[in-house]
Amino acid sequence: MNFIADRMSRIDSSGIRKIFALAADLKNPINLSIGQPDYDVDDAVKDVAIAEIRAGFNKYTQTGGIDELRTEASVYYERRFGVGLENVMVTSGVSGGLFLALLATVNPGDEVIFADPYFVMYKHLVNLLGGVCAMVDTYPHFKLTAEGVERVITPRSKILIVNSPSNPTGVTLSGIEMAGLAELAKKHRLLVISDDIYDQFHYDGPAGSMAGLCEHTVVLNGFSKTAAMTGWRVGFAAGPKDLMDKMNTLQQYTFVCAPSFAQKAAVTALRLDTTEKLNAYRRKRDLAYHGLCALGFEVQKPGGAFYIFPKAPNGNGNDFVTKAIENNLLIIPGSVFSEKNSHFRISFAATDDTIQRGLDVLGAIR
Question: Cys-Cys link to 91, which of 97, 108, 216, 242 (CB 3.0-4.6 A)?
């Protein structure tokens, strides 16, 4: 007897996990595949978490999170982008917030627009919910533009996901480009989901967010990247009150609440000066970008995040990544993040030495 729900046929296991399985027998691989910082959580954040655990703050919080963190998230956006957030709720990471937002809004047949290449979860969650992925081909510049979005809009279009800086390309959108997307969303009455998880990893020019540009916007952000709190599972969401109320209701029956002590620690994380970390990652970006250019790879310079998305020399990302793994280098084929198989993703969230050793292998096998 088959007990598996039909909806499971609409999604596949993570392509990244498949690569890890392929590389399981490697000994001390050069790992440029993982999307998490190479530094640890700050001691100041750890100290708060430990103190809260010892003080007994280990039980459920309110579904929407503690007031202190909800307020601090709004203050953070006011400080960083000049616009405070309203109707903030605390989520179990940005992934949890994304799932709640889509679960609360996507009906079967609704079209969700996002860039190709894309963060893997967008496609699979939309498919799981019976929605339709309306992908905007952004090759070769990887910019999600209003013109590109306009070309895929139909009467079933409902949601526009904006991710800047982007995973997997590291490409960022300017304020003007974001404003253009906001105007288009207003024109076509689209809900905007702004995935801001990499907002502090922004290396060239002022950072931006869709927050405040369009009335119907859900902002998602969290602590897995800048604060390196990947295993702590804390994020936050903000948007129209009616939608946030529904997301809170769904959270009651899914995640219940984000970890209590981690919420307390996240308040401190939002207040820390991250300049030193970001300067280090700007240097890593430059090391990866200039190194790939010197080797003759066709590549766009990432303006943020900690990813770079070169074109495979033979135009086949899967074949090139297989060759890299055979040479003890872990990278991810672009087909994991795209309907095309022409590129591959490098994460430069690694030591400088690891990045350089990876470049040496890439130069040897290209």
Answer: 97
Location of structure tokens 């033979």: 314
pLDDT in tens, 12-55: 765 666 666 666 677 889 999 988 999 999 999 999 999 999 99
The CATH number for 241's domain is 3.40.640.10
Amino acid 256 reads V
How many CB atoms neighbour CB 33 within 10 A?
24
Could you tell me which residues come within 8 angstroms of residue 218 by beta carbon, excluding any fewer than 6 positions away?
Answer: 97, 101, 191, 192, 193, 194, 237, 238, 239, 240, 243
281-310 average pLDDT score: 97
Integer CA distances (angstroms), 176 to 117, 145, 207, in order: 21, 10, 12
Distance CA 336, CA 122 (A): 12
Which CATH number covers residue 337? 3.90.1150.10
Tell me the pTM: 0.94
Q: How far is CA 142 from CA 222, 232, 302, in A?
A: 24, 31, 10
